[in-house]
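Model: Ready when you are.
Researcher: Fold this.
Model:
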Amino acid sequence: MFRYIVRRLLQMVLTFFGATFIVYALMFAVQDDPIQALVGERPITESQRAALTERYHLDDNFFAQYWYYMKGLLTGDFGTSMTNRKVSSMLADAWPVTMRLALLAIVIAATIAILAGVVSGIRRGSIFDNATLVITLIVLAMPIVVLAPLAQLVFGIKLGWFPATAGKNATLWQLLLPAGVLASLVVATELRVTRASVAENLRADYVRTARAKGLTGARVIGVHVLRNSLIPVITLIGVDLGALMSGAIVTEKVFNIPGVGFNLFRGIRTEDGPLVVGFVSVLVIVFLVVNLVVDLLYAALDPRIRYE
């Protein structure tokens, strides 16, 4: 296990540097005039332009700019955005907001997926099973760029069931609609995986043995089937964190939630390279750590798995 963890940590380091290099290269490639993009239509003097160019090393080549960024990053400095704010302070403000939204979305998605998936797996071919299949296909077919404004229009504005927008200090009730929209990214996949896992385990030999011993159906499903069926689902929930973070860019923008996705959207629109790369670097670290934890948890839940 120790050797496996060391090997994974080395892979995480390589992945982190590779991801930051690619993101930095993409931002460098699409940059036209970040200074003008920052000020918009307002005029800017030559002295101001020269000062900003020198501060952000905009006259240097790509590798020189990347070296300046990585040198600061390795010392804990995420840089300064084009708005003259420290990226670290912006992260400290935005990260708790996105974490609340993502955790609520994970709870909603896992609850719906596990409950509906278990029922579908037990009652294969029933009306409920076929209905969940159709609903999951519809959800998978709808991109979040369509679903988010549609949900806001229908449930937030027309029907008035939920607040149409949420702010920095939003309550759980205000975050419920955007969290439900965000959960739609992963709930369909988790439901189908749960359904398939339950259906497979119900045909396993240990289930027939448990029933032959006279155990009740509820005990067979609750103690034996469910515990083994949730192993792949837990792994999938960890992987889904990346999808939730990417979906938060659209969701937070639509519902006016000043989190990580909201700031990333603004940074991309204004060509704010330090802001985008700094936020993405933290997201990469979180994604890598969560996947490592999920892999270790997978081994703890399934004794058949041994990491060497």
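Researcher: Now this one.
Model:
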Amino acid sequence: MKQFDTHRIFNINNADDFEEVALDIFKFQYENNEVYRDFCIHLRKSPKNVSSSLEIPFLPISFFKTHKVTSTQKEPETIFTSSGTTQSTTSKHFVPDIELYEKSFLKAFELFYGMPKDFCILALLPSYLEREGSSLIYMVNSLIEKSGHPHSGFYLHNLEELHQKLKILESKGAKTLLIGVSFALLDLVEQFPSTLTNTIVMETGGMKGRRKELIREELHQILEKGLGVEHIHSEYGMTELLSQGYSKGNGIFETPPWMKIVTRDTEDPLSIQPNGKTGGVNVIDLANLYSCSFIATQDLGKTHPNGTFEVLGRFDDSDIRGCNLMVL
């Protein structure tokens, strides 16, 4: 199998670079990913008749539950799995080159927030810590290690200890990142309301069946009031992706240069919609080199002309699973 130069993925500087790399990765995955190639053939699409990234077929995300979606014969170094429920099948993302994932999440974090070593990173992710195979735990654990701060670490259900830690860090004026799953952050504000002035609070979504679902605005209002912060940040990622989008408030997400969001018509899944119109979220994640870089998610959202996007909910018929978004 011909190797793909992964350096190209993280050296995209403009729209033309993105287009060129996206089309080359489409060709690479068409040639090396049997599941994706069969899907493309079914749609009568191939590198011969695709000349734009928007013409590339987007593989339904459910294929990660039913097929081994891989573009290499190399054995996986790790397998990321979705949380799922007892009734649902979990997604499996076979990752043959973990360095590609590390490079993706570190470069994106540095792009939007700076160096991890500048933060004390506190992670409140109980539902993820309680199972194996979480790509989010892998990412946050790496950020905590790179932070190197003596107080950085994970918290399971010890909210009082976390609260006391936040008070100490605030008293010292330490630059802090608190990253948490929605239901656990709500537990924290109910039991230990605070006023945080040096802390970025980032939710990764998901009630995981522990609480009733809230729309994002309602969730963020409760957290902003309970933690005394002006904005709640958000992370948009999922098991099937190796890249993340970030929002620094108001639910407006940005992506790194190797990731792009477009929306599809909910009535016609093969047609791409203009900016500002609500539709199904399609993700181009060029870091997904060895699985599939072109994925049709079960999220609803809309894009903006400047490349940002919003997540507005989920398709009604999709099962609720470990993907960080909330149901309308």
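Researcher: Key takeaway?
Model: The first strand starts at residue 59 and ends at 60.
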